[in-house]
Amino acid sequence: IAFNVKKDKSAEELALKISSLIAMHFSNINTIHILNSSSYKGNIDKFNQISIDTNKKIIVHQNLSAEEIIQLMIHCDFAIVSASNSAYECACTGLPMVTGYYVNHQVQFYNALIQQPNIEGVGQWQTVTTEILKTKVEKLVHEYDPNAKKIIDGFQQKRFIDMISSKIAYNMTDFMINEYWKETYLPKVDLNKVIKIEDTTT
User: Fold this and answer.
1) Would you give the distance in Å from CA 84 to the centre of its chain?
2) Does 27 have pLDDT greater than 80?
3) Distance (Å, whole) CA 10 – CA 7
4) Could you please report the per-residue DSSP string of 39-74?
5) Model confidence over 59-110: pLDDT tens digits?
6) 43/182: higher pLDDT
7) What b-and-e string marks burial along 113-138, b requiring 16 or more CB atoms within 10 Å of the CB?
8) Are 30 and 54 contacting, i.e. CB atoms less than 8 angstroms apart?
9) CA–CA separation, 19 vs 36, rounded Å?
10) Can you point out the beta strands (E) in the chain?
Protein backbone atom coordinates (compact mmCIF):
# COMPACT_ATOMS: atom_id res chain seq x y z
CA ILE A 1 0.00 0.00 0.00
CA ALA A 2 1.49 3.33 -1.03
CA PHE A 3 -0.14 6.74 -0.81
CA ASN A 4 2.97 8.91 -1.02
CA VAL A 5 2.65 9.57 2.70
CA LYS A 6 4.94 12.40 3.76
CA LYS A 7 3.65 15.15 6.01
CA ASP A 8 0.24 15.04 4.35
CA LYS A 9 -2.29 14.05 7.00
CA SER A 10 -4.97 13.19 4.44
CA ALA A 11 -2.61 10.74 2.71
CA GLU A 12 -1.74 9.16 6.04
CA GLU A 13 -5.42 8.82 6.95
CA LEU A 14 -6.12 7.13 3.63
CA ALA A 15 -3.21 4.71 4.10
CA LEU A 16 -4.55 3.83 7.55
CA LYS A 17 -8.12 3.47 6.27
CA ILE A 18 -7.18 1.18 3.37
CA SER A 19 -4.78 -0.85 5.52
CA SER A 20 -7.57 -1.42 8.02
CA LEU A 21 -10.09 -2.43 5.32
CA ILE A 22 -7.65 -4.89 3.75
CA ALA A 23 -6.66 -6.36 7.11
CA MET A 24 -10.26 -6.82 8.28
CA HIS A 25 -11.98 -8.02 5.11
CA PHE A 26 -9.42 -10.07 3.17
CA SER A 27 -8.77 -13.29 5.03
CA ASN A 28 -6.46 -14.69 2.32
CA ILE A 29 -4.02 -11.78 2.62
CA ASN A 30 -1.40 -12.60 5.23
CA THR A 31 1.06 -9.71 5.01
CA ILE A 32 0.51 -6.05 4.20
CA HIS A 33 3.43 -3.85 3.27
CA ILE A 34 3.12 -0.09 3.81
CA LEU A 35 5.50 2.03 1.74
CA ASN A 36 6.04 5.45 3.28
CA SER A 37 8.14 8.35 2.07
CA SER A 38 11.52 8.93 3.71
CA SER A 39 10.15 12.24 5.01
CA TYR A 40 7.18 10.58 6.75
CA LYS A 41 6.67 12.16 10.18
CA GLY A 42 3.53 10.31 11.23
CA ASN A 43 3.00 7.72 13.92
CA ILE A 44 3.92 4.20 12.81
CA ASP A 45 2.24 2.87 15.95
CA LYS A 46 -1.11 3.49 14.27
CA PHE A 47 -0.27 0.85 11.67
CA ASN A 48 1.02 -1.46 14.38
CA GLN A 49 -2.29 -1.13 16.19
CA ILE A 50 -4.17 -2.26 13.09
CA SER A 51 -1.89 -5.29 13.00
CA ILE A 52 -2.69 -6.10 16.62
CA ASP A 53 -6.45 -5.56 16.20
CA THR A 54 -6.75 -7.72 13.08
CA ASN A 55 -4.02 -10.27 13.75
CA LYS A 56 -2.41 -9.42 10.39
CA LYS A 57 1.26 -8.92 9.74
CA ILE A 58 1.81 -5.29 8.72
CA ILE A 59 5.29 -4.12 7.79
CA VAL A 60 5.97 -0.40 7.46
CA HIS A 61 8.81 0.49 5.10
CA GLN A 62 10.62 3.79 5.12
CA ASN A 63 13.88 5.17 3.67
CA LEU A 64 14.06 2.41 1.05
CA SER A 65 16.43 2.80 -1.87
CA ALA A 66 15.14 2.55 -5.44
CA GLU A 67 16.49 -1.00 -5.70
CA GLU A 68 14.82 -2.01 -2.41
CA ILE A 69 11.48 -0.60 -3.63
CA ILE A 70 11.77 -2.66 -6.82
CA GLN A 71 12.53 -5.82 -4.84
CA LEU A 72 9.58 -5.18 -2.53
CA MET A 73 7.21 -4.76 -5.47
CA ILE A 74 8.51 -7.92 -7.13
CA HIS A 75 7.86 -9.74 -3.84
CA CYS A 76 4.22 -8.58 -3.62
CA ASP A 77 1.20 -10.01 -5.47
CA PHE A 78 -0.54 -6.68 -6.12
CA ALA A 79 -0.50 -3.09 -4.95
CA ILE A 80 -2.99 -0.51 -3.73
CA VAL A 81 -1.68 2.91 -4.64
CA SER A 82 -2.61 6.47 -5.46
CA ALA A 83 -2.27 7.65 -9.06
CA SER A 84 1.16 9.12 -8.39
CA ASN A 85 4.81 8.10 -8.57
CA SER A 86 3.93 4.89 -6.75
CA ALA A 87 1.66 3.81 -9.61
CA TYR A 88 4.41 4.64 -12.10
CA GLU A 89 6.83 2.42 -10.14
CA CYS A 90 4.29 -0.42 -10.11
CA ALA A 91 3.91 -0.06 -13.87
CA CYS A 92 7.68 -0.26 -14.29
CA THR A 93 7.83 -3.59 -12.44
CA GLY A 94 4.63 -4.97 -13.97
CA LEU A 95 2.92 -5.19 -10.57
CA PRO A 96 -0.91 -5.37 -10.85
CA MET A 97 -2.60 -2.56 -8.94
CA VAL A 98 -5.78 -1.04 -7.65
CA THR A 99 -5.48 2.71 -7.94
CA GLY A 100 -7.42 5.87 -7.26
CA TYR A 101 -6.87 9.57 -6.69
CA TYR A 102 -7.19 11.86 -3.69
CA VAL A 103 -6.09 15.21 -5.17
CA ASN A 104 -7.17 16.84 -8.44
CA HIS A 105 -3.81 16.72 -10.19
CA GLN A 106 -3.88 12.89 -10.07
CA VAL A 107 -7.12 12.57 -12.05
CA GLN A 108 -5.62 12.71 -15.55
CA PHE A 109 -2.99 10.08 -14.75
CA TYR A 110 -5.65 7.95 -13.06
CA ASN A 111 -7.86 8.03 -16.18
CA ALA A 112 -4.91 6.90 -18.31
CA LEU A 113 -3.96 4.11 -15.90
CA ILE A 114 -7.36 2.45 -15.76
CA GLN A 115 -7.34 1.97 -19.53
CA GLN A 116 -4.44 -0.48 -19.12
CA PRO A 117 -4.54 -4.23 -18.35
CA ASN A 118 -4.08 -5.51 -14.79
CA ILE A 119 -5.12 -2.17 -13.30
CA GLU A 120 -8.42 -1.49 -11.55
CA GLY A 121 -9.68 1.93 -10.53
CA VAL A 122 -11.78 2.92 -7.53
CA GLY A 123 -12.18 6.61 -8.34
CA GLN A 124 -11.70 9.02 -5.47
CA TRP A 125 -10.08 7.32 -2.48
CA GLN A 126 -11.93 9.46 0.06
CA THR A 127 -15.26 7.94 -0.97
CA VAL A 128 -14.16 4.31 -1.30
CA THR A 129 -16.24 1.82 0.62
CA THR A 130 -15.37 -1.69 1.73
CA GLU A 131 -17.60 -3.14 -0.98
CA ILE A 132 -15.99 -1.10 -3.75
CA LEU A 133 -12.50 -2.09 -2.65
CA LYS A 134 -13.42 -5.77 -2.32
CA THR A 135 -15.02 -5.78 -5.78
CA LYS A 136 -11.99 -4.18 -7.43
CA VAL A 137 -9.43 -6.38 -5.69
CA GLU A 138 -11.37 -9.55 -6.53
CA LYS A 139 -11.71 -8.44 -10.16
CA LEU A 140 -7.99 -7.70 -10.36
CA VAL A 141 -7.13 -11.16 -9.00
CA HIS A 142 -9.61 -13.08 -11.14
CA GLU A 143 -8.93 -11.22 -14.40
CA TYR A 144 -5.17 -10.91 -14.01
CA ASP A 145 -3.41 -11.57 -17.32
CA PRO A 146 0.25 -12.56 -16.88
CA ASN A 147 0.80 -12.21 -20.62
CA ALA A 148 -0.48 -8.65 -20.85
CA LYS A 149 1.91 -6.15 -22.36
CA LYS A 150 3.60 -3.96 -19.76
CA ILE A 151 2.79 -0.26 -19.87
CA ILE A 152 6.46 0.60 -19.56
CA ASP A 153 8.78 -1.67 -21.54
CA GLY A 154 12.14 -0.07 -20.77
CA PHE A 155 12.73 1.19 -24.32
CA GLN A 156 11.67 4.80 -23.71
CA GLN A 157 15.21 6.11 -24.15
CA LYS A 158 15.61 4.36 -27.53
CA ARG A 159 12.25 5.65 -28.75
CA PHE A 160 13.14 9.16 -27.64
CA ILE A 161 16.48 9.05 -29.45
CA ASP A 162 14.82 7.63 -32.58
CA MET A 163 12.19 10.37 -32.48
CA ILE A 164 14.81 13.12 -32.16
CA SER A 165 16.95 11.54 -34.89
CA SER A 166 14.02 11.31 -37.31
CA LYS A 167 13.05 14.90 -36.58
CA ILE A 168 16.59 16.11 -37.29
CA ALA A 169 16.70 14.05 -40.50
CA TYR A 170 13.34 15.48 -41.60
CA ASN A 171 14.46 19.06 -40.96
CA MET A 172 17.72 18.50 -42.85
CA THR A 173 15.80 17.06 -45.82
CA ASP A 174 13.39 20.00 -45.75
CA PHE A 175 16.33 22.40 -45.60
CA MET A 176 18.03 20.76 -48.58
CA ILE A 177 14.81 20.85 -50.64
CA ASN A 178 14.30 24.54 -49.87
CA GLU A 179 17.89 25.37 -50.79
CA TYR A 180 17.50 23.48 -54.07
CA TRP A 181 14.24 25.32 -54.83
CA LYS A 182 15.80 28.72 -54.13
CA GLU A 183 18.85 28.02 -56.28
CA THR A 184 16.99 26.37 -59.17
CA TYR A 185 13.59 28.00 -59.51
CA LEU A 186 13.46 31.27 -57.60
CA PRO A 187 15.91 33.09 -59.94
CA LYS A 188 13.57 32.28 -62.89
CA VAL A 189 10.52 33.88 -61.29
CA ASP A 190 9.57 37.23 -62.87
CA LEU A 191 8.12 39.15 -59.95
CA ASN A 192 6.57 41.65 -62.38
CA LYS A 193 4.30 38.93 -63.71
CA VAL A 194 3.12 37.71 -60.32
CA ILE A 195 -0.66 37.99 -60.22
CA LYS A 196 -2.13 39.52 -57.08
CA ILE A 197 -5.08 37.49 -55.84
CA GLU A 198 -7.58 39.55 -53.91
CA ASP A 199 -9.36 38.09 -50.89
CA THR A 200 -13.04 37.97 -51.75
CA THR A 201 -14.12 36.11 -48.64
CA THR A 202 -16.43 37.84 -46.19
Assistant:
1) 6
2) yes
3) 9
4) T--S-THHHHHHHHHHT-EEEEE-S--HHHHHHHHH
5) 999 888 889 999 999 999 999 999 998 898 899 889 999 999 988 999 999 9
6) 43
7) bbeeebbbbbeebeebeeeebeebbe
8) no
9) 13
10) 31-35, 57-61, 79-82, 97-101, 119-124
